[in-house]
Specification:
The chain is 25% helix and 39% strand. With 136 residues, the protein is α+β, with helices and mostly antiparallel strands.
Length: 136
């Protein structure tokens, strides 16, 4: 499946007292990239909630940190679906320095489709799944 790339700049607020990106902020960068991936596929999260009563929630996360990013770095977050299930998507995500391709952080993020009225996992509508996976 296609890889979606979203640029991110590191702001002062993203760094710790040592001047490097605080580890949890890499997860925020990945979340933003998944949101923009969804938007690029024609879906807004508020629209999915309003029109289909669907939410997405992180179910499982495995992350590896390789190199630090620092204040004012320009980074790229690459996201692609590694596994498309009936009620979940597993993303492979990587944060790199675009000029060198140096890998800073990578993760596997399993996102569950949630029925917003009952807060339980539910199957994704087939049209939504096809659009997201490119099997339209």
């Amino acid at each position: 499946m296609e890889t979606f790339v979203w640029p991110v700049r590191v702001y002062y607020e993203d760094t710790d007292s040592g001047g490097v990106v605080y580890y949890a902020n890499y997860l925020k960068f990945m979340e933003r990239a998944r949101t923009e991936w969804l938007r690029a596929h024609g879906f807004e999260q508020d629209g999915l909630l309003r029109d289909r009563r669907l939410l997405f929630a992180v179910r499982r996360l495995h992350v590896d940190y390789h190199r630090p990013a620092r204040f004012n770095d320009c980074l790229e977050v690459a996201s692609r679906i590694a596994i498309a299930g009936g009620a979940s998507l597993t993303f492979a995500q990587a944060i790199r320095r675009p000029e060198s391709g140096e890998l800073l952080c990578d993760a596997r993020v399993k996102v569950a489709c949630i029925d917003a009225d009952h807060f339980q996992a539910c199957r994704m509508p087939q049209d939504l799944l096809r659009e997201m996976t490119g099997d339209a």
